[in-house]
Write a structure and sequence with these properties.
By secondary structure, the protein is α/β, with parallel strands linked by helices. The chain has two domains: 206 residues, Rossmann fold, CATH 3.40.50.2000; 165 residues, Rossmann fold (3-Layer(aba) Sandwich), CATH 3.40.50. The two termini are 30 Å apart.
């Protein structure tokens, strides 16, 4: 697209949780799709208080969109409201599940009438492990369901995410005291497909794997209960007690609930602990992954896991649980079924260090270069009114 040419497809992107992997994926798509003839109006909110984002983002974003649409109409020569596809300010709405899409569409009104809609499921609340179940928890899975019903196409990052969401819908709707909806799962499944989230390989391509004299294991996850840092720390403490000489890097964002526990447990590793906390920059993160031999996940909740994919690309051999989304992304030799098997597999990898880059092929299908053409095709198809799923 030349500097003076109009974009072929104008996208309104909604991300109320603009941080972490959500932000990285969205920013990368915008950067790479813009030269292909797409333009984006991006509405975001800071990545905090996710429950309140799901509850209230639709109100805030609908107001913003009405103002944008009003300004667009006023800038038109005739000042008249849109009546045809070409007259609308956008050709496509692309939203994450942190906005209630049904509420947004209703509140935005004429500003978005008739515009095709895609909702992207990085995760879903029907499969999310809840520690303290209460009646108000029902709001979040219900928001996912109503958003899916309001979309023309639902994109899921893995088959595990898609299949699990659809399978759980009938049981969840039976919680209704009466007037239980029927056929909802079937309607959502008919308008859904799987499309993985891409990552940027450039920071990892510019860093050469540099291994020290001791093997190093990295745990590259946020410190929250659903990632189960306790299980990882228990495994490395067990191997340290055996006298194995190795290094441990605990990366990822910390949170108040787990920070003290993780820091205390990790400190017990002594000089084996070579890193603790979120790296200061993307480059530092790439260097940390490139310095490790093995990357471990102990997640009890994972719908894709970009951190592990990036670790594979950076040169680490993966060890992941044989559950969640991992079986569709990793071969059997990279998966463990129990804590005891994790300890045994990790012991073997520390004693016989894997070759750097041995798992890179697992990650290469998920780079932006590999996946952007698929996103472009989906966006074009839905903007054109062809919303049938492809390559489920």
């Amino acid at each position: 697209m030349t500097a003076n040419s109009a974009p072929r497809i104008r996208v309104l992107a909604l991300e109320p949780y603009y941080g972490g992997s959500h932000r990285a994926v969205l920013d990368g798509l915008i950067e790479r799709l813009t030269p292909l003839g797409f333009s984006f109006d991006l509405l975001t909110l800071p990545a905090r208080k996710w429950k309140w984002r799901m509850r209230g983002a639709a109100i805030t974003m609908a107001e913003e969109v009405r103002a944008l649409a009003r300004a667009w109409r006023e800038a038109r020569p005739d000042g008249k409201p849109a009546r045809t596809h070409a007259d609308r300010p956008w050709d496509l709405i692309y939203a994450s599940t942190f906005v209630n899409l049904a509420e947004f569409v209703a509140l935005a009104g004429d500003a978005v009438t008739g515009i095709p809609r895609i909702v992207y499921f990085h995760e879903n609340q029907l499969l999310y492990p809840v520690r303290h179940t209460a009646e108000w928890d029902f709001q979040f899975p219900l928001t996912n369901i109503t958003s899916a019903l309001a979309a023309d196409l639902c994109l899921f990052n893995t088959r595990y995410n898609f299949d699990g969401f659809v399978a759980e819908i009938p049981g969840f709707l039976r919680e209704f005291p009466d007037h239980q909806p029927t056929g909802v799962a079937e309607r959502i499944a008919a308008r859904s497909q799987v499309l993985a989230p891409p990552f940027d390989p450039v920071p990892f391509d510019t860093v050469l794997p540099v291994r020290g004299p001791r093997p190093r294991v990295v745990w590259p996850h946020r410190w929250e209960h659903d990632k189960d840092p306790e299980a990882f720390l228990a495994a490395v403490h067990a191997l340290a007690a055996e006298g194995l000489d190795f290094e441990v890097a605990v990366a990822g964002q910390s949170f108040r609930e787990t920070e003290a526990m993780v820091a205390e447990a990790a400190a017990g590793l002594g000089d084996r602990l070579v890193h603790l906390g979120k790296p200061e920059s993307r480059e530092d993160y790439a260097r940390l992954l490139a310095s490790a031999d093995i990357a471990v996940s102990t997640a009890r909740n994972e719908f894709f896991g970009l951190a592990m994919i990036e670790a594979c690309y950076a040169g680490c051999a993966p060890l992941v649980p044989d559950r969640l989304a991992y079986p569709e992304l990793y071969p059997a030799e990279a998966r463990y079924r129990s804590h005891e098997e994790l300890v045994a597999r990790l012991r073997g990898a520390l004693l016989e260090r894997p070759a750097p880059g041995s798992a890179r092929a697992l990650a290469e299908p998920y780079t932006f270069e590999a996946l952007v053409p698929r996103y472009a095709e989906v966006f074009e198809r839905v903007a054109d009114g062809r919303t049938e799923p492809v390559n489920r």
